[in-house]
Amino acid sequence: MDVVSALRTFLRVAQTKSFSAAALDLNLTQPAVSRQVSALESHLKTRLLHRTTNALALTAEGERMLPMALRVLEAVDALGEASGAEAATVSGKVRLSLPTPLGLFIGDRLAGLLESHPALDVELIFRDEPSDLIANAIDLEVRLGPAGDSSLMCRRIGWTTAFLVASPGYLEGRGAPRTPQDIKDHSCICYSRAGDGRSWSFSSGADDVVLRIEPRLAANNSMAVHRATLAGAGLAVLSHILAGPDIEAGRLVKLMPDFPPARLPINVVYPSRNMPPRVTAVLDFLVQAVREDVLMASSATLPAARPVNEASAEPCA
């Protein structure tokens, strides 16, 4: 039997929790996927999956096998890349998880990448909370602020820029806040990211202020916050990606320019330093796209671009 192919099939079944979904991803029939997993179980002399009519779950042995299978496949992919066997063609699917504003920003720019690599497929996943990369079969994930899991590789690629904004209609008859302390006199719209969002942080460069907000409106979706702000529901802190065009058009007013919202690092996390060419191509594209936006990249705070496999990729703290 082809152990590498069987391990690849087992990994995809474990990630998708479905023989049929794995078959679709691997361009195989469902019986072929089932046969490969059964053959692997026979080869290893242990059951890796519990199968029932309505459910599929890893056995304890399967749970232990999962990270080992991933390491074997990463080593095989790295060997192929080193030998030049795969370097000429970037092919396959890459699952990329991003916060919604950055996902919109990247989606607007993906056409060039896909045109350069006709055999590459990209699946964008809009998600603000950290994912289990291996369990959810995610190749790359963008996280704002601390990267989290120290077992992951981490690369900082830029910094967020956000604005405190409100619509002209909301501000009519109300005084615009000039300092963070003035915000308590206003209705606020909070974006509840990753279970929080009730605190706003501002920085003048010399002083930092963190305010606890009692919002009139809260939402776990940044697009909903954006639309409510345009409709005049109150003040909101919005990414420049969402707010920038509206500020330029006069639909939103940028407030407290001398005390803007604090910036957060933009980190990309991934399971291993050894990445196949398809993932490297998407990461390189992501880095370049962010650094071409002057409000996300700063030569004063960001290191010069380096290849992904050099010291710029480190285990997350």
TrEMBL record:
HTH lysR-type domain segment(s): 1-59
Superkingdom per UniProt: Bacteria
SUPFAM superfamilies linked: Periplasmic binding protein-like II, Winged helix' DNA-binding domain
Official protein name in the record: LysR family transcriptional regulator
UniProt keyword terms in alphabetical order: DNA-binding, Transcription, Transcription regulation
Gene Ontology MF terms: DNA binding; DNA-binding transcription factor activity
Family assignment from sequence similarity: Belongs to the LysR transcriptional regulatory family.
Entry keyword annotation includes DNA-binding: yes
PROSITE patterns linked to this entry: HTH_LYSR (PS50931)
Annotated Gene3D superfamilies: 3.40.190.290, Winged helix-like DNA-binding domain superfamily/Winged helix DNA-binding domain (1.10.10.10)
